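BUG: 3D viewer hangs when loading the predicted structure for this chain

Environment: internal workstation, default settings.
Expected: structure renders.
Actual: progress bar stalls at 90%.

Input used:
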Amino acid sequence: MRPLYLKSLEIQGFKSFPDKTLITFGTGLTGIVGPNGSGKSNIADAIRWVLGEQSTKTLRGAKMEDVIFSGTQARKAVGFAEVTLTIDNSDGALPVEFSEVAITRRYYRSGDSEFYVNRSSVRLKDIHELLMDTGLGRDGYSIIGQGRIDEILSLKSEDRREIFEEAAGISKYRYRKEEAERKLAGTEENLMRVRDIISELEGQVGPLREQAQKAREFIELSGELKTLEVSLWLDTLDQLKTNLIKAQTDYDAAQCALEEGQRALDALYKASEEVAGRMHEQDRRSEQVRSELAALETERSENEARIAVLKTRRANNLENISRITNELEEQAGRGENLAAQISAREARIVQLEAVAKTASGKIEALFRDARELAASASDILSKADALAAKEAAARDRASALKVEESALLSTGESIRERNAQIGQEAAAARERLEAEQERAGALGRELEESRERLESVANMIRGFSLKAEAKVKKAAAAAEEKAALEKKIGAMTGRLELLRDMERDYEGMSRAVKAVMQQSARGALKHIRGPVSQLIHVEDRFAAAVEIALGGALQNIVVEREEDAKAAIGFLKSGDLGRATFLPMSAVRGSELTEKLHGEAGFLGLASELVSCGEEYRPIIRQLLGRTAVADHIDNAIRMARKFSNRFRIVTLDGQVLNVGGAMTGGSLGRGTGILTRANERARLERELSAFDEALAKAARAQAEAERERAAAEHDIGVMKNEERTHADSVLQLETAIGQHTMLLDSLRARIDELEAEKKSVGVRLFELSARQKEYEEHIRAAQEEAAAAAAELGALSQGRDEVVRRQAGVNDTIAALKTEAAQAESERGALASSLAELRALAESLSGDRAQRERVIAEYRAANEALDREIEEKNNLSSEYAANCGAKREILKKISEEKMALEAERVRRDREGQEKNQELLNLERERARLETKKNQAEMEEHQILDKLWENYELTHQAAKALRVELESPQKAGKRISELRGKIRALGAVNAGAIDEYQRVSERYEFLSSQRDDLDRAKAELMKIIAEITQNMQRIFTEGFENINRNFNDTFVEIFGGGAAQLELSDPSDILNCGIEIKVTLPGKSLKTITLLSGGEKAFVAIALYFAILKVRPTPFCVLDEIEAALDDVNVTRYARYLRRLTDRTQFIAITHRRGTMEETDVLYGVTMQERGVSKLLALNIADVERKLNFKPN
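Structure tokens produced before the viewer hung:
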């Protein structure tokens, strides 16, 4: 059966291969050719990279991202690089149950890296362990380039061991030995820590034993004191209870008497209120009677008034009868009187007509005067307008002059500013002059100092020689410190890388979760936030509880929307990748418990409150953990679950669960195996590594600094000579600078003189401007005076105009008065005319009026008879009113007497109420005294109960169980004092010493057993290390001898003679010593490899590699232009020998040499038809030979 060999290599996005490129390999010799820069060495880099190479330098890059195709002018950059290497494993050489093993490595620009074996995600460490001792590992010899040839030839002999150890097959033993040594170091560290703790505990056990004995005595005395005090307090409580019962009885009796007295007082108050009510009723009746009496008096007065009116009317009627009778007698002579009146009125009418005519004439004359005054007023207004215009012109001229004056002032201000600026520039120039003078002095002093430093250079050279010796010692110490830190960081880094690989590979999560997250990383699934476990952070204390509470929900995947979850589910379904739970952020709205749990014993918080996460994930966390409480231990959890009737889930810190409904889940937990625990450990290691990295960086800086200081010290002598020349140059420069400063000082003095001259000129201009300003002020004053004169004249005209207006008003008033007089005369004339007509009518009617007056007299006499009868009726009514008023006065007298009797009764009842109130006050005082007594007894009772609880945490009922019969309270009190004295004599007592002593003793015994176990483990590890070392020595010795023998044979075959051998630099330490290579070329003497030519070195190294392949053939070997330094003859030898080895090893040769190409079975050509993009062409040599009927020699 053909041994393990490389079947194919698939490259995509790696360096110059952006497209997917598949290279198949036969079992013989495959050649890869192409011009320089075509990308053929990238195939070797791809194989090296997929096998786990981490060094970017080895991969010919600056950073790992450089392995991804970076794009050309015609092509865009790709997002990842992927290489798959397929190995035939039919013989089962690799420890996996597959006939083919496909190793894949994928790297994204984000820095994420993935490893797969047959499409299953693995760690880099898994690949290293899979390929260990096959020659394909990272330290193996399956890929040999020109650089590797140079390394084995140029490295120190100690650094060549890796290849020989891989060839001898002891790499896995060395790895196991290093693991065992790390465990041994950890065991020794633990053992040292345990011994330190035991030593510390040994110093604690003795004092704790004494403290525990004192604590036991304290507990015994305290127990007796507790019993006596509790019994005495209980007796006191019984006595207080008896006193309290009596006090309560007395208090109740006083309360009853007080209540009875209060009721009597209330009855008195009620009777007094009734009397007051009756008095009020009497007042109301009295008021009502008074009102009725007043009404009667009013009606009586009104009746009397009406009688008086009737009598007046009767008297008037009698007077009218008398008057009419007299008028009848006088009527005869009245006709003559009317004629005289008519004549007088006619004369008055004529007089009034004359008055009206005179007034009309005066009004016409006044109208003419008014028109003349109006014309005069118009003339005055015209003159006023002219004067106003004159005043405005004068004021405009004054304003223009003020504007020019302002311009003049502005110019003056500018000149004054320039004057101030000149002063500032002059001051600045003087300051600079002083500064430069000081600078010149400083330069002189600096010149003297430079000369002194020049003289001290020789002394400094000797000092640096001594310092160099100290720096060498410092560098050595820094190197040792750095090595120790690197060893510790290496161990921590290994663990951290393991944890990171597990997190990156989603170790412990379902296949579906891994598939979704890998697809999301490629960008195929959008808006995937990640599993819940990667979005939260929990303190170590709560990690187990939260992890148990979440359970499978740790693997729930958080997405942004329902559509994102739908897309992921579709992806899982299409690929038959299993099932997963998704939590859309847009849909999940969690809630938390509403029960009030804070204050419950053992309650540490809701699980959702103990988790840290981004605020956008808080609703999801509430959904998952919002109804889960966290308790410190299971007893408190059970108590809490019972109290709240198992309505929610409770998780304890050690992972025990009380489910809703009462079901319980629990047991033991593995240590450090949970996802959250791993995350916390990773974070802790990162923090610690950061601190160690800082320490390492500090140590590296210290070492580098020491090296730099040493190198600096070694070169300081030469530097001092340069410094001597520098100081000489400095002296010359300083002398030149002093000369320049002298010139600068002269320039500054000249500038100051110029500024002084300009300042004088500015002063002259300011004087001229001041004179012009005075002229402008005179012109402005003249214009203002002209405007003032015009304004005064205008004021005088205004006064004349006012006089005209006043006269116009007088004329108008006169006209109005005359018009009024005429109107009045006309009105009077009209009235007289009307009166005249009436008099004439009256004269005509006097002759027929006598009969009418006689009829009026008869009517008056009849009216008087009716009035006499009405007056008699009113007099009778007045008599009735007088009788009613007397009756009402009698009623008022009686009401007053009754009211006085009620007043006497009210006074009597008020006096009784005061007496009863005093009695109640005495009862109240007595009740207060009894209440105070009762409260005092209750307070003493509570004090004793409080002392029971505060001192011994006992309730009254619980204290009864400790009660003993006391002989007497006095003896009990005496014994209590004695016990207190003994307790005080004990001094400070560590009450926890008993438990502490027990705990420390148990811990001491436990740690002692641990120490014994660690001693045994240490011995076992040392035994294992010794056995591994023996096996390594034996295997390496056998392998080294075989390699040495085959090296000599191969060397003789290839070189056609001579001899070659490998020598251990220290045969007593074969596992650590260096390996020397010595050869004797045909016809030459024995030489070390360093004395050979370049071609000879390369051929010797090739012979050594061939010898190694004979002893331990690798499944395949990639040779990257290792024959480049050989001549054509030796290339042919190399190629033919290579062909002889193809029966056991598959070779892939990257070459430019024709001799090598001729020996290949399949030839691949790498071209770069498109700039920056490599393409592959294949040529099967055997097929070509068959078609050409070519028979090789």
